Amino acid sequence: MKIVHMSSAHAIDDVRIFCKECRTLASSGYEVVLVGIGDFEGMRDGVKIRSVAPARSRLERMTKTARRVWDIALQEDAELYHFHDPELMWTAMALRRRSKFVVYDVHENLPASVMSKDWVHPALRPLVSAGCQWAEHLAGSAADAVVVANRS
Q1: Residue 73: which of 55, 53, 88, 59 has the closest Cα?
Q2: Contact at 8 Å (CB) between 89 and 136?
Q3: For 99-139, what is the HEC assignment?
Q4: Residues 137, 19, 29: CA angle, nearest 5 degrees
Q5: What confidence tens digit (pLDDT) does each residue in 10-31 have?
């Protein structure tokens, strides 16, 4: 089985994504591709690395970089896609339409964390938080599995 991990925000050597997830899957016999931020292309510890350049702004990361990650991930034509960033939530629905298995890896409580983000105007935070909760519900509904980080 071929598995593609997708991130528009994390570096290709991210401890959680590359070390704990991708390398572990590769050592268990899966064909693993990581599409993430960096400048390396090739094999590392049994994982095929496909890199995209880091974004110059948050808006660029959420648009151009996310789209580039998507385009590269689709080129790999995997059976399972595992995405790690809120700006990639839309890919869950798009991948389901292509009959792919989808895993959404929720690294943080996005609706709660938006309430303290300085890049969101304080008056808009409740609305943005509610929008994030709605988007996560849709992405979670489209995904075959959701991985969460919690205190336990």
Answers
A1: 88
A2: yes
A3: CCEEEEEECCCHHHHHCCCCCCCCCCHHHHHHHHHHHHHHH
A4: 90
A5: 999 999 999 999 999 999 999 9
